[in-house]
Amino acid sequence: MAKREQVATAEETGLIAQAQAEYEAIRAQIAEHYQQARELRSQADKLEQSGRTDAQVMTEVNQLLEQAKRLTLLADQLDAHERLEKRFAT
Length: 90
Hints:
Elements: H1 2-49, H2 55-89
Helix pairs in contact: 1-2
């Protein structure tokens, strides 16, 4: 019986470690998405401040801002999903 409990405990420990690693990987991915979105917004700001007003620059600014928006939404979704899973896991 004691061996069976030790095996179960080892398996549980392994599962907990795996879940923690997955959680940390998702948290890193969320942080990376937010960072990329900030960088894209910064690039868009620099282009807007360059003084150029031609259509190509404005198109590029809009594309950068759209990419930033998509990354932010993705990060928000991942973050909300993680919070929900954590809340229901306890």
